[in-house]
Design brief:
With 721 residues, this protein is α/β, with parallel strands linked by helices. The protein contains 23 helices and 26 strands. Among the domains are: 178 residues, Rossmann fold, CATH 3.40.50; 114 residues, Immunoglobulins (Immunoglobulin-like), CATH 2.60.40. The strands form six sheets. Strands 9-6-5-4-3-2-1-10 form an eight-stranded parallel β-sheet. It has a six-stranded mixed β-sheet with strand order 11-16-15-14-12-13, sandwiched between helices. Strand 25 and strand 26 form a beta hairpin. It is globular and about 75 Å long. Bound molecules: alpha-D-glucopyranose.
């Protein structure tokens, strides 16, 4: 398609339509919502709404084709609609939430899962996914930590790029390739007080050093689209933030893809108190560099006036429209507006055995064994198993953003265990609800009876999926009193108990950790959760997940993360309380978290030794090699993620006590050793210096290698240049 000729033939209304994205209900002939209702709320007529260039929140190939036909019938130049959807961690077959996928430290697995979900979405008519979400997260109070891969820029960047590759393939020419949209630009994961949509206040240094690299990694991986965040950064909403959208994104990073606002974010600038009215909102967003306006119509309604008043230019409008037409062209929509949409392929691919197997493997690799005092794995020969708790038979384990996923497709823990142990007697009782703050345990007596008689007890606790995600921040992160009461009673009557914990964030498990001998954190594991849990609990699979986000000892520590600053008065023993006065301590809790970034146990053990450096001095021309030998010293095969950290001891700005710079995931048989060699380059040592340049500074560095951010072999080297 000659999109420049097409642009030249388009009317202004057609162009403005291409920059407007409306919910699918606006296109349905028999929609259940009065078409004049939402349209009138937006202030546009039905005919105008049908000129929109893209849509979201539709489900299925049939839906998509109907909507595409309606749109094409109204488009003077037959410009096809772009169909977008939140395919965050699966489409119909749901794999673990991204925070759990972060714990896999496995780029291939993430890419494979993104590929699978992109395929399922493509046959249902999706052209673009609003994923990956690269908001770095350090505050478990924020509900959307579940959507992020965690607290570390390096890990997030590598996994974000893997998501982009999985969705987009090489160049969008593959039948099942879908375009990706990295979000939410920027630093949405750092709202004050952990409260969603709240202001983000940080220095440009911290923004650039910590929060931006993840998005940049996705742009370097070729992501097609980016979505500014709802929040303000430095007092300016991201939707009209020229530092973010113009200086950094367009000029420094040279991104020429589509910038699409978040839902109604243009008009929310009025609530922020930055835009006077809809027209002013459109002016601010367009001049900052936004292209498509999601679910509001200020561009459509006011761009002509703004053009006449010289407040925006036709060149801005044309450049934005060309970006949209170019993506449609490269997706082949002008030739085939339905693209891969196929009801037959939906039936063949959605929830097919291969996709369920992948979702199960992902749930196994995302789970983290937090504690195990000789209880796990349970013996498969057990005769009587008690599965107790609000998540024993819960099918709502797919997570908050599960797109076309359905609870009824999810395998429960009870079903998974019964499938694995067909000859065992597997009894269950809920005990209590998963409601926040629940105090009642109506089935306590039955739970005590079941656990007393069982050979093994699986205690299924945690946070319900709809208590996580967008708009769902929490100020308390502990389990409910009812869940703790149930746990205390069960464990008192059977020490052979393991807790399986569901959640969309690091919960505060300090009290539970005091009484339960084993804890397996499974996040919201998705469609195959119950089978994955059964495989892990009974040793079919050896746990290998490593925490991608720090677990606080108490809510009051939030935000808490491993790559913190040393301060001028560090505490000497972070795991104790009542440290000496005038230090960076708490009077009532330790400074250290309950479980650190990178923590994750296994059913086997590993030894790390022979940390060897290729030299004591590193130069720009002579990168440093760091070697370590890792041995499986246990009796089971397992996967181990070896982590490499550095510390820049003296620099022009204070530097974190640790920074992850590389990781490698090994598979080792019992007794097997592997030599891992990492390479550090000058780029790895570079940071945003006091004078604002991005460079490595000469001086002494410490290098660390280990299984997590606390147990580390250490060596020093100098960087000279
Ligand atoms: C939501 C979210 C964003 C999502 C969009 C479309 O409010 O902030 O992540 O992609 O709307 O559903």
């Amino acid at each position: 398609m000659d999109i420049r000729k097409l642009l030249a033939d388009m009317t202004l209304e057609e162009k403005l339509g291409q920059l407007t994205q409306l919910n699918a209900i606006f296109f349905k002939k028999d929609n259940t919502v009065d078409i004049t209702g939402p349209v009138s709320r937006l202030g546009i007529a039905e005919e105008e709404a049908l000129l929109s260039g893209s849509t979201l929140n539709f489900i299925g190939a049939k839906d998509m084709k109907e909507i595409q036909d309606i749109a094409l019938a109204h488009q003077p130049h037959k410009i096809p609609l772009l169909f977008m959807q939140d395919v965050i961690h699966g489409y119909r077959t749901i794999y673990p939430i991204p925070l759990g996928m972060g714990c896999t430290f496995d780029e291939e697995l993430v890419e494979e899962c993104a590929r699978m979900s992109g395929k399922e979405a493509a046959v249902s008519g999706v052209h673009v996914t609003f994923s990956p979400m690269l908001d770095l997260v350090r505050d478990a109070r924020w509900g959307r930590v579940m959507e992020s891969t965690g607290e570390d820029p390096h890990l997030n960047g590598r996994l974000g790029a893997a998501f982009v590759r999985g969705y987009q393939g090489d160049d969008l020419t593959g039948k099942y390739d879908i375009a990706a949209c990295v979000k939410h630009f920027a630093a949405y994961g750092a709202p004050e007080a952990g409260r969603d949509y709240n202001a983000v206040e940080m220095s440009e240094h911290t923004l650039r050093e910590t929060y931006l690299p993840g998005y940049r990694a996705c742009i370097d991986a070729g992501v097609e689209m980016i979505m500014p965040s709802f929040n303000t950064v430095g007092g300016v909403p991201s939707t009209c933030n020229r530092l973010l959208l113009d200086r950094i994104l367009r000029k420094e990073w040279q991104f020429d893809g589509i910038v699409i606002s978040d839902y109604n974010a243009y008009r929310e600038m009025i609530k922020h108190g930055v835009a006077e009215d809809d027209k002013h909102a459109a002016e601010l967003a367009i001049n900052a560099g936004c292209d498509i306006e999601m679910m509001s119509a200020t561009t459509y309604l006011h761009a002509k006036e703004l053009l006449d008043e010289g407040k925006i230019t036709m060149e801005q409008i044309d450049r934005a429209v060309l970006r949209v037409l170019d993506l449609k062209d490269r997706l082949g929509l002008f030739e085939n507006p339905y693209r891969a949409a196929s009801e037959d392929e939906e039936k063949a691919l959605h929830l097919c055995p291969a996709h369920r197997d992948l979702a199960c493997r992902a749930a196994e690799e995302a789970s983290v064994l937090l504690k195990n005092e000789g209880v796990l794995p349970f013996d498969k020969s057990v005769r009587k198993v008690a599965v107790i708790g609000p998540f024993a038979k819960e099918q709502g384990i797919k997570g908050f953003w599960a797109c076309a996923g359905r609870d009824e497709d999810c395998v429960t823990v009870l079903s998974g265990i019964r499938a694995l142990l067909p000859d065992a007697e597997v009894a269950t009782v809920r005990g209590c609800s998963w409601e926040l703050g629940e105090t009642e345990v109506p089935d306590l007596e039955e739970a005590i009876e079941l656990s007393s008689e069982a050979d093994a007890v699986v205690l299924c606790l945690g946070e319900y999926q709809q208590h996580t995600g967008e708009g769902n921040s929490r100020a308390t992160l502990t389990l409910s009193p009812a869940q703790m009461k149930l746990a205390e009673a069960v464990i008192k009557h059977n020490k052979n108990t393991a807790a399986v914990i569901f959640g969309g964030r690091p919960l505060v498990l300090t009290d539970l950790a005091q009484i339960v001998p084993a804890m397996l954190y499974v996040w919201q594991p998705g469609t195959e959760g119950g089978n994955a849990v059964a495989n892990l609990l009974f040793g079919e699979v050896n746990p290998s997940g490593k925490l991608s986000m720090t677990f606080p000892y108490a809510e009051g520590q939030c935000p808490i993360y491993y790559s913190h600053m040393h301060t001028g008065r560090p505490v000497k023993r972070p795991k104790t309380v009542y440290e000496g006065g005038y230090s960076s301590r708490y009077l009532d809790v330790p400074v250290a978290p309950l479980y650190a970034f990178g923590h994750g146990l296994s059913y086997t053990t590993y030894a790390y030794d022979q940390l060897i450096l290729s030299d004591e001095v590193m130069t720009p021309a002579a990168p440093l090699e760091i070697g370590v030998t890792v041995t499986n010293t246990g009796t089971r095969a397992g996967k181990e993620t070896v982590q490499l950290y550095i510390r820049d001891k003296v620099a022009s700005v204070a530097r974190p006590v640790l920074e992850l710079k590389d990781f490698a995931k090994l598979e080792l048989a019992p007794g097997e050793s592997a030599a891992v060699i990492f390479t550090l380059t000058e780029e790895d040592l570079a940071f945003h210096t006091a004078d604002g340049t991005f460079a490595a500074e000469r001086g002494e560095f410490e290098v660390f290698v280990g299984p997590n951010s606390e147990e580390l072999l250490q060596a020093t080297f100098r960087f000279e240049k």
